[in-house]
Specification:
244 residues, mainly alpha, 0% strand, globular, transmembrane helix, peptidase activity
């Protein structure tokens, strides 16, 4: 093979690699982008009413958002190679995952210091729509928060972005690869995604740690799901809607 042919072959391989990387990026980015888009629209429209009543769009956007994000995840499901393995490989992994999920919840509800909050808390109360419809909306909220959101967020933060910071061809980076830059970037940005930014960073540290320990995504998803499920139960039991 001539030098020219070698260069042409190498260039073709690089181009193919970049094309494959881009095609693998979007299934992990689009569900997250859709979710954040709804949050941005809700913020633009004002969310909750000034008199304390639930804003109409705020009340109904969550079911729509959940449906849109769930549909995107289902459409791209076959592309998520990191989810094809077992949820847990042994009981130790399951136990640690449960402890992490519960631990993040226990810390989260104690980190609502005024200086650790950005913007206004959403204060989502589904029961302003009535008792019966409120139960339906509450059920959708818990389902979305504990099933859809953990899959969507973990695919974006701890499958895509944490590896993309290491190498733009992110799928060549092993899940659970640690670098200080990727760790810091995902922790800070994950925290800033939430109104409770410090609690968000704490959760990001815990879920990242689980990723580094297991080298797999399912434990992160399950821990995240446990956190959100127990938080949802806490909200319904106490009426502290601002956690939602």
């Amino acid at each position: 093979m001539s030098v020219e042919e070698m260069i042409r072959s190498r260039g073709s391989a690089v181009a193919d690699g970049l094309e494959n990387t881009q095609s693998d990026m979007w299934p992990r980015i689009l569900p997250f982008a859709a979710f954040m888009g709804f949050i941005a629209i809700n913020s633009f429209l004002g969310g909750s009413e000034a008199n304390g009543n639930q804003g109409t769009f705020d009340l109904w956007s969550y079911p729509i958002k959940t449906l849109v994000v769930a549909s995107l995840l289902m459409f791209f499901w076959s592309r998520f190679h990191e989810l094809k393995g077992s949820i847990f490989v042994n009981w130790q992994e399951a136990l640690v995952t449960i402890i992490v999920g519960l631990g993040v919840y226990a810390l989260w509800v104690r980190m609502d210091w005024p200086w650790a909050i950005q913007g206004e808390l959403s204060d989502y109360n589904p029961f302003v729509a009535g008792s019966t419809l409120g139960l339906v909306l509450a059920g959708i909220r818990i389902f979305g928060a504990s099933v859809i959101v953990p899959v969507m967020e973990e695919l974006f933060w701890r499958s895509f972005l944490i590896r993309y910071v290491v190498n733009a061809n992110f799928e060549t980076v092993r899940l659970g690869t640690f670098t200080l830059g990727s760790f810091a970037a995902t922790v800070v940005l994950f925290g800033l995604e939430h109104n409770l930014w410090l609690a968000g960073m704490m959760a990001g540290i815990c879920y990242n740690g689980l990723l580094y320990w297991t080298g797999r995504l399912w434990p992160c998803i399950i821990a995240h799901a446990i956190t959100n499920l127990v938080l949802g139960i806490h909200v319904l039991a106490t009426g502290e809607w601002y956690w939602w």
